[in-house]
Amino acid sequence: MTPKDVITLANERGAKIVDLRFIDMPGLWQHFSLSRRELTEDLFTDGVGFDGSSIRGFQAIHESDMLLIPDPATATMDPFMTVPTLVMICNIMDPVTRQLYSRDPRYIAQKAEAYLTSTAIADTAFVGPELEFFIFDNIRFDQSYQHGFYFIDSEEGFWNSGKDEKPNLGYKPRYKQAYFPVPPMDKLHDIRSEMVLAMESVGIPVEVHHHEVATAGQCEIDMKFDTLTKMADRVQWFKYCVKNTARKHGKTATFMPKPIFQDNGSGMHVHQSLWKGGKNTFWELGGYGDLSATARYYIGGLLKHAPALCALIAPTTNSYRRLVPGYEAPINLVYSQRNRSAAARIPLYSKSERAKRIEFRTPDPSCNAYLAFSAMLMAGIDGIQKKIDPGQPVDKDLYELEPEETKDIRQLPGSLEEVLNALEADHEFLLKGDVFTPDLIDTWIKYKRKNEVDPIRLRPHPWEFALYYDI
Questions:
Q1: C-alpha closest to that of 315 among 76, 18, 56, 95
Q2: Is domain 3-100 given the CATH code 3.40.309.10 in the classification?
Q3: So which residues are the signal peptide here (predicted)?
Q4: 189 among annotated binding-site residues
Q5: C-alpha to C-alpha distance for 249 and 195, rounded to whole angstroms
Q6: Which of 78, 130, 137, 364 is catalytic?
């Protein structure tokens, strides 16, 4: 849409408020709102000022003034606000130089797409993430000098099978057995359906929704694939619709990768393919999984750079409660057809050219989608440019292999600290085309170490009291 189209849409839909949204570096949507009368064509060129020093990972206080520039193509009506509200996603601009801001994650995604085109490898990157999440009924957590705890509850939680609920009607999904029964065992069907309708109201085509493996409300909703930046925009809407629909029903949703002990965590498997001139460059009939050499090299880039990528695609300390050996976790740096214990998988649901893609299973939904999708694309491009061999595929169950069969299989690092070190050592592939900048990578690493790694390292864990109090 053009700015004039946006103004027409606002008039037709009776918008009274205009909401401007952008993403901070860790990955949360931020916003502020304007009166409808401020929606003029000048808004799209002049922008609106805000304090960049108050946003995580952005400016220092002595250079805090920044501008939001609305993208008219993103205009849509908010499905949750009581007052009719038109929403636009924005890019961030430096008001002095009038240059787009190098730390704006959305700008990085746009640069990644432009760089792909410049290489002549392909003209389009398609991305299809599968976001998993939990819906809980209650969440409490706190930590201070002399105490620390979290407490989760869910009407679906199997731990409530013996609770006097006056009456307890049963139908609590068993641990690791919630994929995917019909109601009444699946108590969240109607809520997920409402989430789907909310997503479709803001322009997100949804393919399927279902209960996931874990007890206590693990769910998945799958969007139809789209281009990289557009899909990252949709991930933000996805999370917004999930959280606000859950809240409407008196529940709470989380995209935390591993909130429940000894049950499945939440991943974000990301389907990827590169297209050129309307043709899928990943498809070649007759090869392994009908993959082309381009696709195999792309996988080679993902697997080679996976430890560094994890700092952006599995970027929380909690991510490494999910990515542990022996628990259906995609930590093995190999690829395979159908095998879900490999980091990269080639889905075989269809043999058509259009459906051919690779699925990278390591990411989780705690990531900033703009940064994660861009980083994976850059790793794949590096693999294609350098013809990185991904090795031989592994079609056996990786958890049942004999020790001599696993000794040469690389695995992911086991902590956020380790993957940040990996990113520090291996990020040249991200700098091509000025997609990521040294400043952004340095800022990301410092932010994560200071605000996440160190605070977790400094605090005693509740289970340490069970292990060591009587020592």
A1: 56
A2: no
A3: none
A4: no
A5: 11
A6: 130
